[in-house]
Amino acid sequence: MLKKPVVISVLAIAIVGVLIALRLSPSKENSSATKPAGASALPVKGYVLNPRKLDNKVIASGTITANEEVELRSEASGRITRILFSEGSTVKQGNLLVKINDNELQAQLQRTEYRRKLAEVREERQRKLLEQKAVSQEEYDNALNELNTLRAEIEITRAQIEKTEVRAPFDGQIGLRYVSVGAFITPTTKIATIESIRPVKIDFSVPEKYAGVVRKGDKVLFRVQSEEKKREGVVYAIEPKVDPATRTLPVRAIYPNTEGTVFPGAFAEVELQLQEIDRAFMIPTEALVPELKGQSVFVARNGKAASKKVEVGIRTDKDVQITSGLNEGDTVITTGILQLRPGMSVNFTDVASD
Asked: What is the C-alpha separation between 349 and 331, in angstroms, rounded?
């Protein structure tokens, strides 16, 4: 009978002990209150804004083209009687390259010359008679008109003979020949190609955003695939409109090519050197936050995030230039952008700078 009260006493002591233990243990609220304030801040990375030199350049693919290039064709149809150039040779402007048979035109010219001489004699005779009032003004006018008509016919024939001659339109180098002596050619027949490669041109395009930055006289560095060294050219022409199909701006540079070692048609890797900026504020592209009416970034102010509207300038492959909205020494937040809100506490795990 004594065992039951003992058990009850033991249970009572155990219950009292549990209550005392619960009372002495800290509550969750008290535990969270004792945590450091920084434990609830968002961990982020930052970038300290310092001015640096911006060497602005654009990388593009280009094509080497000849300064002048023409496919040689005849203006007249006929049989070739002479070819006066060698393949790959250098020619001067005006050199006769190909002659087409003009025997019929030469005979026609000679006949008209005989008629012209006779008409000159008749005109002179009629003029003297007119001075003596031995003939009428109409008779003299008919003689003069016949002389002028024959002179015009001679000029027409000479122009036709000139069309049977293919001459070099400029100083250049002849390419491969596609006809032979004795061949009958027409204006559609390709005889050869002549190119002027001193200097050469470099055609390339830059993105639309550089349309207002590229200037005539900008330096261009380019390299052709057959060589490792870079050559220097100069922008000398810019298309006045952006290509609507590619949204790029066509640009043309020129290179002296005095040695004649750069050939038209070659592929070129082009670096367009734009203006250099001594004090440019650059931030990582991922720090930029697009908005409906512009763009902004988050900066740290006394351990809290603050949104700042900014204006941007030149973009590179990794960074973007800030032209207004930030000051030297500002710490720009570069990670956790989607989670950030103005006034939120932040804790930097890494801060970079130039």
From this structure: 13
Q: Which two tokens stand for residue 243?
A: 């290509």
Ranges of each domain in the chain: 43-53+280-353, 58-67+195-276, 74-100+164-190, 102-163
Classified by CATH at the fold level, domain 102-163 comes out as Helix Hairpins (1.10.287)
Entry pTM: 0.65
Cα-based angle 125, 130, 133 (whole degrees, multiple of 5): 130
Cβ-count burial of 32 within 10 angstroms (0-12 exposed, 13-18 middle, 19+ buried)? exposed
Please give the CATH topology (third level) of the domain spanning 58-67+195-276: Elongation Factor Tu (Ef-tu); domain 3 (2.40.30)
Average pLDDT for 254-283: 90
pLDDT in tens, 287-335: 999 988 889 999 999 899 999 999 998 877 788 989 999 999 999 999 9
